[in-house]
Amino acid sequence: KIHPREREQVQDRKEEVRRMLIAFPNTSLEKLELIDKIQRSEVSYHFEEEIEASLQMIYEAYYECNNIFGDDNLYVVALGFRLLRQQGYFVSSDVFKKFKDSEGNFEKALTTHVPAMLSFYEATHLRVHGEDILEQALVFTSSHLKSMMPSLSDFFREQVMLALNQPIRMSLPREYSGSTFVKDWFKDYVSGFRWWRDLEFLTKYPFARDRLVESYFWSLSVYFEPKFAMARRMLAKIIALATIIDEIYDVYGSYDELRCFTHVIESSDSGRSAIDQLSSYMRLCYLAILDVYSEMEEELAKKGKTYRLYYAKNEMKKLIRAYFDEAKWYHSDYSVPTFEEYIKVSLVSSGYMMVATISLVGIEDNLMNKYIMDWVTKEPLVVKASTVIARLMDDIAGHEFEQEKGHEPSTVECLMTQNGTSKEEVILELQKLVNDAWEDVNKQCLSPTDVLVLILVRVLNLVRVIDLLYKDGDVFTHSTTHFKDIITSILVDPIP
C-alpha cells in the first residue's frame, strides 16, 4: 500500500513541474527540454494539457515564420522538430537545409557538438516516406556518433550507446519515478499470479514457456497510467494464454487435437458444453479462455461496454486459425511456402492484431467507442505497419532457434528459398521493410489522424515493446537473459 506521505510528495512534485511548464517562455530552450524530459518519463499523463497547449503555441510560431524560433542552433531545431512531430504536428524537414554546405552535405562543424548530433539523430527517426534529407541525416549522424565514441567522456559515451541502440521514437519511457509506479504494477501482478497459480499451467504444461511476468510487463508498457488498470489486467492475461496456445500449436499438439481445438474456438456458440470434444490437456486451456472472457464481460458490463467483448473474441479466433494454418504446414509434406503465402498467415499469427485490439477493449476512457473498435479491426495503415514490424523483427531475431526446434519456416527461410539468396541478404531486405513500416507509422501519427492520440499512443507503445523484445535477439523467448535485466532495472531498481 502506498503511504499517504508518498502520495503527498508526488503531488508536490507535480505542482512544481506544472509551475515550471507555465513559467518558462514557449520560445525558450528550457521549455523544450522540460517537455522532452517529462514525455520520456512515465508521469507525462499528468501534464498532457499543459504540454499540448505549449506545443500548439510553438507550432503556431513555427507556422508563421516557417522556422523553429528562427534559430541556427541544430540542437534546438532538431529538438523542436522532434517534439512537434511526436505530438502530431507536421513540421517540414526543410528546416534542416540551412545546416548544409554549398555542395549539399551537412556542415562538418556540426560533428564537434555531441548534444546537437544526438538531437539531430533522434529527430531523423520521425521521418516519413520521401524525406531524403532525413535519410541522409540518419547516415550522417549515426556514422559520426559511432566514430566519436572512443574519444567521448563516460557520460556522453553512455548517451550515444543508448541512442544508437534504442532511439527515443522506438523506445518506452526511459525514466521511472519509483515506488508509487512499482507498487501499482505489483498490485496488478499479485492478482495475476494467483490466477496463474490456480490454473496450474506450470505443472500441466511443462513444455510451454512461463511468461506471466513478461506478459504483465508488456501490458504495463502499453499503458502505465493508473486509470488503465483494468485494461492492463485483461491484456496481460490474454498474452499469457496466447503464449501457451502458441506453444501447443508449434510443438505439442497433434494435428487432430489442433483441428478440434480450432473448430471449438471458431464456433460462435461454443461454451463449456464443447469441452467434451477436446483432449484432456487442451480442456484446461479452453476453460481458461472462457473464464477470461467471463471476467472481461463482467468488468465491461459495469461500464456499459459489453459490445467490446465481440472484438476480443473475434481476434482470438483469427489468431487460433492462423496458428492452425501454420500447423498444417508443419504436419504435411508441404514444401516451403512462398513469401507471399507465408506472410499472409504469419502477420496474423504474430499476435499483434489480437493484442492491439484487446489493448483497446479494456480502456475505460469515455472517448473510447464502437467507432474506434471498428477502426482497429479494419487494420488501418498504422496497425498494418506495426504488424509488419512485429512479424519481421520476430523472424529476424528468432528464426534460427525456431528452426532448431523444428518449427515451420519463417520469412527468412521463405525468401532464401524463393530468391536463392543468402541469409545475410534476406535479413538486410527484411530490415529495410521494417524501416519502411516505421515510416508508415510516423505518417499515420501526424495530424489529421483518424482517431485520438490516446489511441495511437497504445498502438505506438505496442510496437515499441516489439522493438525492445526483438532488437537484440528474441529476449521474450530467452527472458532469463537481457529481458530479465530490463525488467529488474525498471521494476526492481527504478530511478528514485
From TrEMBL:
Q: Which InterPro entries match?
A: Isoprenoid_synthase_dom_sf (IPR008949), Terpene_cyclase-like_1_C (IPR034741), Terpene_cyclase_plant_C1 (IPR044814), Terpene_synth_N (IPR001906), Terpene_synth_N_sf (IPR036965), Terpene_synthase-like (IPR050148), Terpene_synthase_metal-bd (IPR005630), Terpenoid_cyclase/PrenylTrfase (IPR008930)
CDD domains associated with the record: Terpene_cyclase_plant_C1 (cd00684)
Q: Where is the Terpene synthase metal-binding domain?
A: 198-440
| Domain Terpene synthase N-terminal, residue spans | 7-162
For this UniProt record, the keywords arranged alphabetically read as follows: Lyase, Metal-binding
- Which Pfam family name is an example for this entry? Terpene_synth
Sequence similarity: Belongs to the terpene synthase family.
Q: What is this protein called?
A: Uncharacterized protein
